[in-house]
Amino acid sequence: MPPKQIVERKSELAKLEALDCGKPLDEAAWDMDDVAGCFEYYADLAEALDKKQKIPISLPMDTFKCHALKEPIGVVGLITPWNYPLLMAVWKVAPALAAGCTAILKPSELASVTCLELADICKEVGLPPGVLNILTGLGSEAGAPLASHPLIDKIAFTGSTETGRKIMTAAAQVVKPVSLELGGKSPIIVFEDVDLDKAAEWTNFGCFWTNGQICSATSRLLVHESISVEFLDKLVAWIKGMKISDPLEEGCRLGPVVSEGQYNKIKKFISTAETEGARVLCGGGRPEHLKKGFFIEPTIITNVDTSMQIWREEVFGPVLCVKTFRTEDEAVELANDTQYGLAAAVISNDRERCNRIAEEFQAGIVWVNCSQPCFCQAPWGGTKRSGFGRELGEWGLDNYLSVKQVTEYISNEPWGWYTSPSKL
């Protein structure tokens, strides 16, 4: 499969990605490394899969023997978002192909270019026609028919909770399995025993990476009240050193958001927060040096109440909301006060406390003393309204496999449940 071709075309693909969705070029280049790594990882798992077939299952009766077969689930529909156009596609394409499935990939209409390049690369490496198909178009016209089509055996979707609900409804009509990676409103808890600069960098990275447009963004900061003033000063100081520019400029750390629609949506979230009584500590507007493009400054919002929209709903932009806490129990309760359950982070030098909180978080992904690291070997997915099923790792391969039990009667004796006609 394509790792070599991805590596060879890395700079070209990264530039196309940055142009298409606005992410900084350095991030896009990092994504291309991950794309190649993901293909390599699943190529290895595909080879290992053959060795795992027909492994005997221990039974309580020695007159039977049993094994399980893992088989491709069939034709899969893969619907992917615009924030990591090629990487999110490959998170699905690589395991689907490794499992032996054929796939129809429907990328976001806002960023499809690199997925079309992937089709070109697959053709170049000799993938047979029809194994991977790229279907561009609007969700209602291209994605929805995949969800309801009786000949599509499985849907894997990454995107908003609202769209995920529609896909589940459509798939239910034909009893089709789905796996969903949906929205998030992830917390990051910062305790009073931390190195403030290290914690500030991780907090900013956790929310403002990928222009804040990331489902796992740790966009709810819970900071211990004893360090809150000093810590927020640190966050603002770090933000002032962040380069906001054309994503192709060297050293860019925050580019424009993906579209005018997204820009207006984020601005409305900020204005609603102010109307509800929250305070914009920094950011909230357009950077002064950028007169064109959908740029929004990294924004920190304080005086937040748990009933506010900014606390409860996913912004999908560079906006961090802040609350303080006194006790560990209060911090955990606030962290879990969300309909979502994708990710959660804790920053503290107390190892035992971190372990306790990791177990108490209601989330599919937990980060300790960091935010947003992602490795293709580890499971990725959420709980509650952040969806179900897991991508990446061996779990990602299982998404596209069906398990068949094969049991054989091996005794020479008759079963003996009924009286033999010869004995009547």
UniProtKB/TrEMBL annotation:
Coiled-coil features, chain-numbered ranges: none
Gene Ontology MF terms: aldehyde dehydrogenase (NAD+) activity
Active site residues of this protein: E181
Pfam families to which the protein is assigned, alphabetical: Aldedh
InterPro entries referenced in this protein's UniProt entry, alphabetically: Ald_DH/histidinol_DH, Ald_DH_C, Ald_DH_CS_CYS, Ald_DH_CS_GLU, Ald_DH_N, Aldehyde_DH_dom
Aldehyde dehydrogenase domain sequence ranges: 5-406
Recorded metabolic or biological pathway in which this protein acts: Amine and polyamine biosynthesis; betaine biosynthesis via choline pathway; betaine from betaine aldehyde: step 1/1
Cross-referenced SUPFAM superfamilies: ALDH-like
Hydrolase found in the keyword field: no
Keywords attached to this entry: NAD, Oxidoreductase
Family, per entry: Belongs to the aldehyde dehydrogenase family.
Protein name: Aldehyde dehydrogenase domain-containing protein
Source organism: Acorus calamus (Sweet flag)
